[in-house]
Amino acid sequence: MDKTVVLFDVATGKSLRKYRGHAGVVNCIKFNEESTVILSGSTDNTVRIWDCKSRKLDPVQVMDEAKDSVTSIQVSDHEILTGSADGCIRRYDLRTGKMIKDCIGNSVSSVTFTRDGQCVLVSTLDDSIKLMDKDTGEMLNEFTGHKNRSYKIDSCLNSNDTHVISGSENGQVYIWDLLEAKVVEKLQHNKMRAVHSLSYHPEDTCLLTACEDKIYMWCAEKSDAS
């Protein structure tokens, strides 16, 4: 909220560096795959890139194509994906230096790559999640049933791209079958609070969610034979 990006040492819990440069609240933040660079998105409509290895505290690059608040960032080995309240997602190809923009229509609250890198999952503030073909921009499927009108709510896929998972403003996590777009499970939290953040384990059947001041861990039950 104070417009800074803070880098912490995990072992000691101490802050190592503070990066100042955003003119607005910092909404989202990601490391690159090597954890050498930090990318941060803000209500000042920019994505700023910070070099963790440099002693300089100024951003090494500023991406200011968004026309409204940058709400979500994802990073792969050669691409940066951003979502914005201006209703657009932007994909920056680091190999070609090109930016590809797709207009979704409603304010974007979350973006993520599918595990195979072929598609993009986009949550918007109209109670909808859309699966988009990354190259063509075609909508392949749509997932509804949850509530997302006012808050930045995370969505993601499970470890093998078979299910879509999203928080909701009604205190539940919704899980859909990717192909059929049908709700197959709901995980109940506090009914009065939004489940705003979640993260799926890259290999195991395990999900972390956050609701109000609590973090929950959900894991599949192991059978007696396993």
Layout: helices, strands, pairs:
Elements: E1 4-8, E2 15-20, E3 26-31, E4 37-42, E5 47-51, E6 61-63, E7 70-75, E8 79-84, E9 88-93, E10 98-103, E11 108-113, E12 119-124, E13 128-133, E14 139-144, E15 155-157, E16 163-166, E17 172-177, E18 183-188, E19 195-200, E20 206-211, E21 214-219
Antiparallel strand pairs: 1-2, 3-4, 4-5, 5-6, 7-8, 8-9, 9-10, 11-12, 12-13, 13-14, 15-16, 16-17, 17-18, 19-20, 20-21
Question: How would you portray this structure in words?
Answer:
Belongs to the WD repeat MORG1 family. It comes from Pinctada imbricata (Atlantic pearl-oyster). InterPro entries: WD40/YVTN_repeat-like_dom_sf, WD40_PAC1, WD40_repeat_CS, WD40_repeat_dom_sf, WD40_rpt, WD_repeat_MORG1. The protein contains no helices and 21 strands. The chain is mostly beta strands and 226 residues long. It has a 4-stranded antiparallel beta sheet, with no helix packed on it.
Give a quick account of the main beta sheet: strands, pairing sense, barrel closure: 4 strands, antiparallel
Radius of gyration: 18 Å
- What is the share of helical residues? under 10%
The assigned structural class equals mainly beta
